[in-house]
């Protein structure tokens, strides 16, 4: 492990504040504006809506701290793919990369493209028939833009980071002090007219988790921090605390600005709340800022997702490996990997809604998250002397909390949305024949 660590060692030049801003930049995306409709639809009340945001933040903080120990112990290129491979072997690691390639990234692209199209239609008063053409156009456009190189994609990310912070700050600051006639009751915590409290909480928790998407990558900072043993846990706790606070406050403002019964299932909640707070012109300007933010989020999925299947191709771990590993001549980007990703995303645009797609990607990725939480216990027992620049404080409480939270998300999804859950599991398991067909092909060629 030492040779591997040295081979892939990263430059340690991140202090606390750069790490904090990176954590917040990784996590805050389009979900902050658009998951309120599905959260309220699942919870049935303002009180349970606010509570599930707080609960999701608490679970995510403990999950992030747990993954951080793996990241500091295994600071190798490849992130969670390499953690799964190191602990469980090549087949589970391949299934993770397969799930990311055919579910996680394409579903993220398609879900946010649908939201982008919905907001454009709302802003420009276009009929609903425009939704699919606009969503497909965005996915294809950003694929073509990313063929120009990582520098272009990176610039879009920088612009969108500023764009998404401006409407968030404006909505929260102005919205809190804007008078309202809506009656908001935060206590006691109930599920409103929904008969089953625990089912409502599970559905709401699953819906919130897309807004926290990106937390699995925060542990990757360990290999680049000057003092991971001191600053890593602090940056994760503080960063995810502020993210949770932002989500709670902006959800409160949405509930404050609009009558509660107008929010469930309403994907235009953010723009309608902005119009209520800032007036028609101001609301439209804020909506444009939200659109730029979503545009950047789609670009982020497009840019990073193609690198996963490219890595499988470069490692000769997938059929048509030479095509997936091929880079464009001048800009050095994985064009074929990106093309396949875009085609899958377009198919998903036709097959599902924003909430369906995001719930499926969250469900599938939490299965692998649970494997990593268990992996911390496995490595503590099997390799007690493994160097860990960061060790979880109050072990084993954080990984146990993360496991309980993850189990609740997975079980409640299986009970509430069995079709979605089994589709996600089925698509993931399709990776097994893909892996073994290629494995046997390589074995024959090596003889």
Automatic annotation (TrEMBL):
<keyword id="KW-1133">Transmembrane helix</keyword>
<feature type="transmembrane region" description="Helical">
    <location>
        <begin position="161"/>
        <end position="177"/>
    </location>
</feature>
<dbReference type="InterPro" id="IPR002293">
    <property type="entry name" value="AA/rel_permease1"/>
</dbReference>
<feature type="transmembrane region" description="Helical">
    <location>
        <begin position="360"/>
        <end position="380"/>
    </location>
</feature>
<feature type="transmembrane region" description="Helical">
    <location>
        <begin position="236"/>
        <end position="255"/>
    </location>
</feature>
<feature type="transmembrane region" description="Helical">
    <location>
        <begin position="48"/>
        <end position="81"/>
    </location>
</feature>
<feature type="transmembrane region" description="Helical">
    <location>
        <begin position="14"/>
        <end position="36"/>
    </location>
</feature>
<protein>
    <submittedName>
        <fullName>Amino acid permease</fullName>
    </submittedName>
</protein>
<dbReference type="InterPro" id="IPR050598">
    <property type="entry name" value="AminoAcid_Transporter"/>
</dbReference>
<feature type="transmembrane region" description="Helical">
    <location>
        <begin position="417"/>
        <end position="437"/>
    </location>
</feature>
<feature type="transmembrane region" description="Helical">
    <location>
        <begin position="130"/>
        <end position="149"/>
    </location>
</feature>
<dbReference type="GO" id="GO:0015179">
    <property type="term" value="F:L-amino acid transmembrane transporter activity"/>
</dbReference>
<feature type="transmembrane region" description="Helical">
    <location>
        <begin position="93"/>
        <end position="118"/>
    </location>
</feature>
<keyword id="KW-0472">Membrane</keyword>
<feature type="transmembrane region" description="Helical">
    <location>
        <begin position="275"/>
        <end position="298"/>
    </location>
</feature>
<dbReference type="Pfam" id="PF13520">
    <property type="entry name" value="AA_permease_2"/>
</dbReference>
<feature type="transmembrane region" description="Helical">
    <location>
        <begin position="333"/>
        <end position="354"/>
    </location>
</feature>
<feature type="transmembrane region" description="Helical">
    <location>
        <begin position="392"/>
        <end position="411"/>
    </location>
</feature>
<keyword id="KW-0812">Transmembrane</keyword>
<feature type="transmembrane region" description="Helical">
    <location>
        <begin position="197"/>
        <end position="215"/>
    </location>
</feature>
<dbReference type="GO" id="GO:0016020">
    <property type="term" value="C:membrane"/>
</dbReference>
């Amino acid at each position: 492990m030492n040779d591997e660590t040295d081979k892939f060692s990263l430059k340690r030049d991140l202090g606390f504040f750069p790490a904090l801003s990176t954590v917040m930049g990784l996590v805050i995306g389009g979900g902050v504006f658009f998951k309120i409709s599905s959260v309220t639809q699942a919870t049935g009340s303002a009180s349970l809506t606010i509570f599930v945001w707080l609960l999701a933040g608490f679970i995510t903080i403990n999950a992030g701290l747990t993954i951080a120990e793996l990241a500091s112990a295994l600071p190798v290129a490849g992130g969670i793919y390499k953690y799964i491979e190191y602990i469980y072997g090549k087949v589970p690691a391949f299934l993770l990369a397969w799930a990311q390639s055919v579910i996680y990234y394409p579903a993220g692209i398609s879900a946010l493209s649908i939201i982008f199209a919905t907001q454009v239609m709302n802003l420009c008063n276009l009929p609903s028939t425009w939704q699919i053409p606009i969503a497909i156009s965005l996915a294809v456009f950003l694929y073509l833009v990313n063929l120009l190189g990582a520098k272009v994609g990176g610039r879009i990310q920088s612009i969108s980071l500023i764009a998404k912070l401006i409407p968030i700050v404006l909505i929260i600051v102005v919205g809190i002090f804007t008078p309202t006639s809506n009656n908001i009751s935060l206590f006691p915590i109930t599920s409103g007219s929904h008969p089953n409290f625990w089912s409502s909480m599970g559905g709401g928790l699953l819906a919130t988790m897309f807004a926290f998407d990106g937390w699995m990558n925060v542990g990757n900072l360990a290999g680049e921090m000057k003092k991971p043993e001191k600053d890593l846990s602090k940056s994760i706790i503080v960063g995810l605390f502020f993210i949770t606070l932002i989500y709670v406050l902006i959800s409160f403002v949405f509930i404050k600005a609009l009558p509660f019964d107008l929010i469930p299932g309403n994907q235009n909640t953010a723009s309608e709340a902005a119009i209520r707070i800032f007036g028609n012109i101001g609301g439209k300007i804020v909506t444009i800022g939200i659109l730029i933010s979503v545009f950047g989020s789609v670009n982020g999925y497009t840019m990073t997702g193609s690198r996963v299947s490219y890595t499988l191709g470069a490692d000769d771990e997938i059929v048509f490996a030479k095509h997936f590993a091929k880079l464009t001549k001048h800009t050095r980007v994985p064009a074929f990997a990106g093309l396949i990703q875009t085609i899958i995303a377009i198919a998903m645009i036709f097959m599902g809604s924003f909430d369906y797609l995001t719930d499926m990607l969250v469900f599938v990725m939490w299965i692998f998250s649970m494997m990593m939480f268990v992996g911390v216990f496995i490595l503590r027992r099997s390799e007690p002397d493994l160097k860990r620049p960061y060790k979880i404080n109050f072990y084993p409480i954080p990984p146990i909390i993360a496991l309980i939270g993850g189990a609740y998300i997975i079980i409640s999804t299986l009970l509430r949305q069995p079709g979605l859950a089994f589709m996600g599991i089925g698509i993931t398991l399709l990776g097994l024949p893909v892996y073994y067909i290629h494995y046997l092909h390589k074995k024959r060629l090596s003889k």
